[in-house]
Amino acid sequence: MGRKKVHSRWFNLEKFGFGVIENDRNNELKFSSKVHLRVCLEGGYHVLDESTLYISDQRPTARQLWKQPIGILEVGILGAQGLPPMKMKDSRGSTDPYCVAKYGQKWVRTRTLIDTFSPKWNEQYTWEVYDPCTVITLGVFDNCHLGGGEKGPGGRAARDTQIGKVRIRLSTLEVHKIYTNSYPLLVLNPHGVKKMGELQLAVRFTTLSLANTVYTYGQPLLPKMHYLHPFTVNQIDNLRYQAMNIVAMRLGRSEPPLRKEVVEYMLDVNSHVWSMRRSKANFFRVMSLFSSMITMGKWFIDVCNWKNHITSVLVHILFLILIWYPELILPTVFLYIFLIGLWNYRYRPRHPPHMDTKLSWAEAVHPDELDEEFDTFPTSRSHDVVRMRYDRLRSVAGRIQTVVGDIATQGERFQSLLSWRDPRATSLFLIFSFCAALVLYAVPFRVVTLVAGLYYLRHPKFRSKLPSVPSNFFKRLSARTDSLL
After folding, report:
1. pLDDT of 241-257, one tens digit each?
2. Of 368, 362, 361, 367, whose CA–CA distance to 386 is shortest?
3. How many beta carbons lie within 10 A of that of residue 47, not counting itself?
């Protein structure tokens, strides 16, 4: 473990197993061949069996490198209500529910309650917490293996059916506070999103040392070997798949066993598979990040266009004060941030967040997009359906390609300012830079800022509807798109 280099060695290839008979050992060749290997069991890494977005364990493999826990997580799995019938038993609907919780390397499973839609487990479990920025995952399943029923419809092996899942991020919990809430169990199937009932939990996060908890916020997310000798993306994917299989095999031998389909559902093993719904959800997540910036930009444009004269006058007064006393700019910015944070305290979430169907873009998803998401890999659909989906994928990828190309074009235009790709444009920019340096040396910075600010805040009567000179100059710069085939 560590940064010490592991040296390779030559190993002899020898006969092994029951094929070596005592009488043949005299005629056995002393040397067959050699193989050159470098073998290392590196315990300084953490091999992830789950996505880093929902990670619950960040410790290295070697126990010698573990630090002391910072807190205790207590979870009471009280029960569930409103569960739907998951199978037919004696010509009527039935459900045999049980709950699974996973945090770190510890998996727990409640007892299975027979034929009930409102189970009451009332079981409590505890975990040691090493990092507050982790997630505990709880899932509710229907047991399809009771009474020796190992076969499902069509003679296939029975599989425990998922009813729903809940994730709770520990950093959203206040310390020493008991949260007793009901979380909706939402599941997405080929027919759309459906609420499968509610899971009743009692959760408490207790810190052993507040100073150690705060200290962990400045520490790296993963063990340091991930940063000294990082894995490639392909290695991470392969290792995660192998780790998931190892965990599934280990839990399958426990009593009662946890089936592979349960482990895959809890670990989100198919989260990397293409989904139009997830693509839309991620796109609108990105757009929501820029919504505040867009709102500020619209507000500034309204100020410059004098939509509200009182606001524009107040902005001019504040601008003049900051120019006259430039030492107040940074304190004012940080004070404004502080006041926004205090104002948002009134709207803080009272309960840990749960699955959001609107954020997941699961309420208005097209049926064919859901069918594509639940399709097997390789696909099992007809050629016409696959051709239609391929054309749709080409259309979406074409728009993404255009956006990425536009971003690359803007970056290459910035590079072309000094690359002499366009000699006239680079000469003009160098002349402008030299003149700007002389002006900034000769004129106080306060005066330059004052003139620039008043120019941007000028009244619409003094504005032109045509693009500005810098904008026209930048759009005329050359990019490398001319060299693309």
Report:
1. 899 999 999 998 888 88
2. 368
3. 15
Q: Are 51 and 65 in contact (CB under 8 A)?
A: no
138 within 8 A of 199, measured Cβ to Cβ: yes
| CA 93 – CA 116 distance, rounded (Å) | 10
pLDDT tens by residue, 168-208: 989 888 899 999 999 999 888 877 788 889 999 999 999 99
In the chain, CATH 2.60.40.150 covers 52-267
Select from 45, 40, 49, 103 the least CA-distant residue to 77.
103
Contact 79/87 with Cβ under 8 angstroms? no
Does domain 52-267 correspond to CATH entry 3.40.50.970? Answer: no
Q: Distance (Å, rounded) from C-alpha 329 to C-alpha 439?
A: 23
Reported as half-sphere exposure (CB side, CA atoms, 13 A), residue 122 has a value of: 2
Query: Helices (DSSP H) in 268-308: which residue ranges?
Result: 276-304
User: According to the per-residue pLDDT averaged within each range, which of 72-81, 180-189, 417-426 is highest?
Assistant: 72-81
Which token pair is 453? 């600010």
- Nearest alpha-carbon partner for 142 in 85, 188, 189: 85
125's enclosing H/E stretch is strand 120-129
